[in-house]
Amino acid sequence: MITGGTANGSGRARLRGLLAASTSAAGVENVLALAYGGARVATILQMIPSLPRGMKVSQEPRLYLVLWLLAAANAVGVVTFALVRRRGLSPVGVVVDVALCVAFLLLGTLAVPVPDRIGSWVGWAPGYALAVVVSLAGLPAGAWCAAVGAVSAAYVYFVAGAVTAANRSTIAGNTLTLIVLGAVAQVVVRYIRHVAAAADRAHARVAELARREEEQRARLTMHNATTIMHLLIDPALPPDTRDQLREQAAVEVRRMRAYLSRGSDTRSPSAPGDRHPAGPAEVALREVLEAGMSGFADLGLEPAVDLADGVMVGANAGEAVRDAVAGVLHNVRRHARATMVIVHADAEEDRGRWIVTIRDDGVGFDTATTPRGTGLAQQVVAELRRHRLTATISSTPGLGTQVTIEGKLAR
Amino acid sequence: MTGPLTAILIEDATAIRFGLPTLLPDITFAAAYARAEDALHACPPADVAVLDLHLANSGQQDATQGVAAVADLVAAGYRVCLYTQEERRFVLAACMAAGARGLIRKSAPLPEVGKAIIQVAEGDVVIPQSLIALTELLVRKGSLTILSPRQRQVLAGRARGQTYTEMSRSMHLSESTLRGYWRDLTTITADHFQHTAPADIERTLGLAPGDLMDFWPTHRPDPPT
User: How far apart are CA A263 and CA A261, in angstroms?
Assistant: First the structure.
């Protein structure tokens, strides 16, 4: 039935809307408030069939009706509050609620005949009291004890006149029900709140990690571009280097556009290792390295990657290696003043690993005192570590720099 | 060897032909030629012939060049050091096969150029980084098998750009010992290129039959020792 399904679907949607909350904790409070209100409504529905008989047998029918209507009005008020405010009663509301409950029990002795105070909905106040006690589950321990104590005492007062040898155990059991069921409800509510708080903390942690990830992605996206722009504005830049940089600038523009339009894909559009639904799960390490080296011919590149022929890496890891190689070469171009850069790759079958070294003969730096910038620290080391690859950087002032990337050979 | 090193220069670019001798005062350039044929005709005595690989231009379209010029100069008794912008490694390997004992790029800093020419003049072999990588590949593929374990270690270090200082630290050998290993290794490599059939190299590297034949020398005279 399409109509029925649609109605059912929209009903679910309304329920989801009703229960929607900004945090898990708020959602729990929302659901608890609705549960408390639902318990009141159920109690009132149970009270309705006995109302005519109660009016008939009561020694004070007017008082009986007033108390009944007050109880119903209070229940409606609690439900309305839950629906509108999406939370349980305020402390003042709880005090009023408990006070009304106690009043119904105490004044009920004037309106409910003694034989109907136990085991009959003509004497509805104990049933109503149970719904109130359950709704106290969220109170602090001290306030909860005081409220439950007051309600239990009022209950005992309500049934005191009806105690006989036969129903004594029933009265004791009902009193314990108020206390034990209330306590169980409080434990359950506390546990649910604890779980909700833990979920909120986890959500907050995830959101923080996502924010940091986004920051890092932005830094990585901008790093190469700023290096290129920095070099392009140098009036002394040789023409051949400027041509290389223009090509790389075009790639970086596409990458930044992709980042701005999708916010998640910062890869250059045509490089090997691009992920797409039908794309390869693995890429050749050689292709990855050649993609990373493209556009850096002006650095005096000496590629030596034949020994890694046949080595395959995961598409995501390949992407990270490609970006790492490009990042290292950007650093060389900007800082190293090198005349030659050797990019060497090897597959060491006996050690089950592949290894790539990028070595320049530039000015080098003191690794102990020079802080790593975004390029080396994040684009190379951190990004590769995320893909279970290791990167080490060694350098000596005046003797160049070597970056080594290692990964496990696929079996 | 006594006295200053003497060299001849074969280079079609006039500025380089006249400029390089001025820029390398430690080397005595006995003569400079635009064509290999002129050098071979004059055949002046020299410790090394510095040769540009590409000599044909609009003014001398029929000039002998490339591996043919290398082979002719080697046959005439010269140690040949190529001074070139050529980067294709199999072309450079073909030049070694033709008997060249040194290869230095024109883009290299002048001190490196002078050092390479002197090394070749003194009987050493100077090979560029791209051929070092190719040599490592040939060793790994089992084409070049006569290297000692130490020589293989030195080759691996040089292929990755390590300095002698670094290799000395990791291998616990003196730098002079390592340089000795390297000197022997480069000589073995040059001899290997010269005496190995191109078909064997093609097979070793998985190239198609005939891939190397286009630029491999047809005759390979033994270079002077």
Answer: 6
Which residues from B are below 8 Å from A360, CB to CB? 161
CATH architecture assignment, domain B129-205:
Orthogonal Bundle (1.10)
Top-level CATH class of B5-121?
alpha beta
From A363's Cα to the closest Cα of chain B, the distance in A is 14
Rounded-to-integer distance, Cα A83 and Cα A81, Å: 5
Test the A interface: residue of B113, B144, B160 with most A CBs within 10 Å: B160
Q: Alpha-carbon distance B7 to B172, whole Å? A: 38
Measured CB to CB, residues of chain A less than 8 Å from chain B are 300, 302-304, 306-307, 339-340, 342, 344, 357, 359-361, 399-400, 402
Domain boundaries A281-408, corresponding CATH code:
3.30.565.10
B129 interfaces chain A, CB cutoff of 8 Å: yes
**B159:A304 CB<8 A:** yes
- Each domain of chain A, given as residue ranges in start order, spans 19-203, 281-408
The beta strand positions in B124-170, using DSSP E, are none
- Looking only at the bridges linking them, the beta strands covering B80-84 and B48-51 are parallel
Per-run averaged pLDDT (10 residues), chain A, 411 residues: 45 59 80 85 91 92 93 88 80 90 94 90 92 86 92 92 84 89 90 91 87 74 76 80 79 74 48 50 92 84 92 91 89 86 93 94 85 68 88 89 91 63
Predicted ipTM?
Answer: 0.87
